[in-house]
Amino acid sequence: MTAKTRVPAGAAVLQEDVTEAIAAAAFAELAEVGYGRLSIEAVARRAGVGKTAVYRRWPAKSAMVIDLVTQVAVRAADTPDTGTLHGDVVAYLEITRDALDHPLVARIAPDLLAEAHRNPELAEALATGVGGARRERVAAILHRAVARGELPADTDVALGLDLLAGPLYWRTAIVREPTGPDYVRRLADKVVAALAA
């Protein structure tokens, strides 16, 4: 085997279980102390690894937080194709509600949004990595509805995305009112009616 085809030594390969431990520690630490007081040292200590294990994966705290939050937030935007606009909207709202109700998300999201007002790098990363990527995935709901003839071809997709996300986020994260199945169904009815109007 030549030097060009040699498999890297074990130390050069990132171990998935270590990455998962670091991610779990980062989210726990972020929820506990907030972005401003978060440190690589505390994350490493909580994960039971050395700081170098964290730095092998991310060059700085901001990169670590942005990468981890983006991965989770974008995954949570995947919505199944139920075959109808109403079904897709209900599925999206249920998935989003469950994500916003998660204890870690409930503590991390408001802190990151507040920090974004003070930190332009974080604000830009959240807007593009999280907001942009989520909106792109959720837009599939509206594009499918247009293709099925449930919405007109000139549907304002950007406004539709605001209608899908805004009311649920407001109720869950700002006023902290319950969002059970009945609320989700009623909201879905109104959103679909508004989109089709």
By CATH, the architecture of the largest domain is named: Orthogonal Bundle
Tally of structural domains: 2
Helix content: over 70%
Instruction: Give a short account of the largest sheet.
Output: none
- Secondary-structure element pattern, one letter each: HHHHHHHHH
Name the CATH class of the largest domain: Mainly Alpha
User: What is the CA-based Rg, rounded?
Assistant: 20 Å
Structural class: mainly alpha
Number of DSSP strand runs:
0
Beta-strand fraction estimate: under 5%
Terminal residue distance: 67 Å
- What's the CATH H-level homologous superfamily of the largest domain? Tetracycline Repressor, domain 2
Output the number of helix runs. 9
3D structure, described in words:
The protein is mostly helical and 197 residues long. The chain folds into two domains: 48 residues, Arc Repressor Mutant, subunit A, CATH 1.10.10.60; 129 residues, Tetracycline Repressor, domain 2, CATH 1.10.357. The chain is 72% helix and 0% strand. It has nine helices and no strands. Helix 1 packs across helix 6 and helix 5 packs parallel to helix 8. The chain is elongated. The chain starts with 15 loop residues before the first helix and ends with a helix. The model has no long low-confidence stretch (mean pLDDT 89).
